[in-house]
Every structure is written in C-alpha cells, then in structure tokens.
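REQUEST FORM: STRUCTURE PREDICTION
Request ID: SP-0412
Submitted by: Lab K.M.
Chain count: 1
Length (residues): 57
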Amino acid sequence: MSGEQKAEAKVEQGKGKLKETAGRLTGNERLTAEGRAEQAKGDARQAKEKIKDTFKH
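STATUS: Completed
RESULT:
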C-alpha cells in the first residue's frame, strides 16, 4: 500500500506543477496558487510515506 500512496503523491505533485505552469502562462493567479497548493499537498503526503517507511525498517 505504501507504494501506491507514493505514486499518488507523485501524481498529485505533477498535476500541481502543470496547474502552476498553466496559471503562469495564462496570467491566472488563482490557477497558479491552486497548483502550488497541490504540490505542497503531494509533498506532505510523500514525506508522510517516507516517515512511515523509516519506522517500518
């Protein structure tokens, strides 16, 4: 299950990066902010999974 969660975190980070880039290209500050928030959420999820892996071993 941990691998699945890590993959979801990567997908979320990628979607956030795309939104941020699209927002910057179009000048849409809301979309840029949403993208940054999604990336942060993905980063947090990935960090949580790394911590869980550390305590498993």
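NOTES: The chain has a mean pLDDT of 91.
Reviewed by: T.R.
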